[in-house]
Amino acid sequence: MEKEVLISLSKNFSDIVPQNEESMLLLVWLYQKIEEGYINEDFEQKDLDDTIEEVVEFLKKGTGVQKETLLKKLSSHFCHTQIIGNKYYMHLTVFAKELCRLLIDQVQPELKKFELYHVLNRTLPLQEDDLLNIENFSHWFEHNFLPAQKTILRNTEMLQTAIEEKISDLRNLLKPEVQNPKELINSFTEIFKQLETQTIDLINTLDYKNETLNKIKSLKDKFSQDEETFIRFDKMQREVDNFFQNIDRRISSINDKIQLASKRLKNLFDTLKHKQLFKIQIEKFLTLLLNTSRYEKGEIKLHDALERKLIPFIPTKFVAIPKIDFKTINTAQPQKQNFDKSHQEAERRKGLALLKIQESTSQWLDTINSEMKSGKEIDFENWFDKIIEQENNLEVPINVCFGLIEQHNKIENQVVTIEQEEISKQENELSLWKMKIKTINS
Amino acid sequence: MENENQNYQFLNSDRARKYFADADIALKQGKHLQDYGNDSRIFSFVDEYYEKGLKEYYPTFFQMNLVRDKNDNQTFYYLDFPEDGKGKFGKENRSKELEDEKVIFAILLLNMFKDKFFEHKEIEWTELDQIFKESEHKELWQKLLFGRVKPSYTINEEQGVKDKVKSILKDFEKLGWVEIKNVDELKFEIMPSIERISRLYRDVIGKVDSIQDYLTNGKLS
After folding, report:
1. Where are the beta strands (DSSP E) in A219-358?
2. Partners of A296 in the beta sheet?
3. Which of A63, A64, A65, A70 is nearest to A48 (CA)?
4. Measured distance CA(A265)–CA(B212) in Å, rounded
5. What pTM does this model have?
6. Which of A310, A337, A373, A402 lies at 20 to 30 Å from B214 by C-alpha?
7. What is the ipTM of this complex?
8. Distance from CA of A144 to the nearest CA of B (A)
């Protein structure tokens, strides 16, 4: 919306909207008198004075209404004065008449079914001519569909408002002071029957919408020859389609409400008294709770004298540690780990290789130890070559070497002799010191 | 064995094999079963076999009553303690106290359910917010929810109340008292089983006037 419009509305607010009950009633009263021919379109000062008096009397406000202020308020946007001869004549502006019509329609939600049927039957169906080309179809859309859309929506809204008001009135039935409940229930049943009829009329009025929709859909091929035409057609087709879907939903919801309320009304009379009393007790109990409870550390606490009630409850046990995330609902399912399969496989292979080295190291240590037990001297240089030949892995003989040193350092009757004589091993580009281990008899 | 099962006919049925476990677990978790949504199947099983052994099964083995109740012409089932004790549910971790704020909200929802006698029982947050901010008892509500009455509340205070209501509704959903349609928008439907709260507080509701006198003036009328 343009900002200028807002500024202008804000400035003129008190002039363009009737500011009080008296101004609004005076306008509507004048409008109705003109419509019904009691006064002329161009009325005189006396007609205005009479109407003001009638409004004052109706409102029973006596001298509380300032006639001059009222007239002043109406002068600029609602009522214009002109002099013809030597007499002053006034007339309501088009804006005033439109506003009065809208106000009356709003408070008299009587569905004008014949008028609606007439309007729709005349304007909504597509004629052969409308389908000839995109210009004709567009003309139908602008001049027939859009105004008809407004009328249908207005009637639907009126029906919706009427139903909501009546349902709200129905709530009064449950109050204990209701007089003659049987008559009241009967009158409501009658009202809902009428509303039901009006809804059915509305549905019937729209019955030929499928025909209209099908005709529009059949034009798709015809208008898909060039892109610009198709885009125009598609936009209009979507709007018609969406509109009817929207209306279908609204009418279906209105119908549901009527059906439910009518069904309830039929069953109400027998249990009315009991329902009224029980409802009152519940309301009193709620008020009692509200009056006697207190707020304590962010929580509501009931009066200590009120007994707390137990309900059977075996809690669900968690099968997994709950995920602490207040934004999501805990599903009690263990969280699945994300992992890299190739990395896992590489780690597994690494583990296996390490295990193999440890296993071989252990086996070689056992073999060497049993050699030593038989009293033989261990010349590690030879064993080194033997191990490397069989294992084809340098780590095994190195581990065996460290294992032997560590093991024999702890045993008193064994001696490890390391000579600083270097032995080169060509094939593995490594050098060893000469190492011998032997058991001594002590 | 065959003679025994004649007392509990439901145990012989195929439907029991399918639905009894779910119905039993739900009932023992405090759920009220009614013909609605996901519970429709187990409700239908309980409804069919209630008079064919299910009604006797719980008093016999758990000393608990399986109650068939009605509200708004709709049936619902729940487990209840016997009049003279708590049956097998008297042990620790087999029952729970209905928290104070849940009592007050359950009574509010029951009242709204009754108000909407002629309508669908769907509620949106705006309707609750209106009760807290514009109803006859708005000041009492605000005192209990926000701790004090102010012309307006901060976003955090508002959110705090909304979160509290959300958490209560989630617990009520576990009991089968409401069905949440949209948790973020706090859109939900009040179920007929909300009537249970009036059964729990039957003694208080029946003599609410004298209790009111006692709590406010310290004397019984």
Report:
1. 294-296, 299-301, 310-312
2. A299
3. A70
4. 33
5. 0.58
6. A310
7. 0.92
8. 37
